[in-house]
Amino acid sequence: MDRRRFLAGTAAIVVLPFDSAQATPEAMAAAIRKVVGSSPVREGRVSLDLPPLVENGSTVPLVVSVESPMTEADYIKAIHVFNEKNPQPGVFTARLGPRNGRAVVGTRIKLGDSQKIVAIAETSGGQFWSASADVIVTLAACLEEST
């Protein structure tokens, strides 16, 4: 195999995943439906804290907090986070229980483009509460060169 054929084949391998693996608003809606089923999702009780404008999509701070007594009878069972333009619509799911004391999850995520982020809290009683936020990314995480 000569150098030109090798480089051409490598370029095709690198380019194809970016074209075929993109979440869409429809994919995000389908991923949410997989979690909630036919249950209604109400707005409220959930706070989604992330910056509205980020310079670098590689490390975007995110905190989700949910109003809940976190008792044995009434607690937040899970926090699900979704996005509409990264390669996968599901960002993460955090499982909680009454011994957590507070329903708060903080982390850093990667964002490949400006998009909407949705957080959904699942209660022990089977209810779903949500919040969403739009984030503008000036330098996408997936396109940044390594140094």
CATH class: Mainly Beta
Helix count equals 2
Query: Could you give me the name of the CATH homologous superfamily?
Result: SoxY domain
The percentage of residues in β strands lies in 35-45%
Q: Which structural category do the helix and sheet elements fall into?
A: alpha+beta
* Biggest sheet architecture: 6 strands, mixed
Task: Look at the structure and give the mean pLDDT.
Answer: 85
Proportion of helical residues:
10-25%
Quote the CATH topology.
Answer: Immunoglobulin-like
Cα distance spanning the termini: 30 Å
Shape-level CATH architecture: Sandwich
Quaternary state of the chains: single chain
- Count the domains: 1
Task: Produce the secondary structure layout.
Blueprint: H1 3-20, H2 25-36, E1 41-43, E2 46-49, E3 53-56, E4 60-66, E5 76-83, E6 90-95, E7 103-109, E8 115-123, E9 128-139
Parallel strand pairs: 1-9, 3-9
Antiparallel strand pairs: 2-4, 4-7, 5-6, 5-8, 8-9
Descriptive key words:
6-stranded mixed β-sheet; globular; 147 residues; 3-stranded antiparallel β-sheet; alpha+beta; Immunoglobulin-like; 2 helices; 9 strands
Overview of this structure, please?
The chain has a single domain (22-143), classed as Sandwich (Immunoglobulin-like). 20% of the residues lie in helices and 41% in strands. Strand 5 and strand 6 (90-95) form a beta hairpin. The longest helix is centred in the N-terminal third of the chain and has 18 residues, at 3-20. It has 147 residues and is an alpha+beta fold. The strands form two sheets. Strands 1, 3, 5, 6, 8 and 9 form a six-stranded mixed beta sheet that branches. It is globular and about 65 Å long.
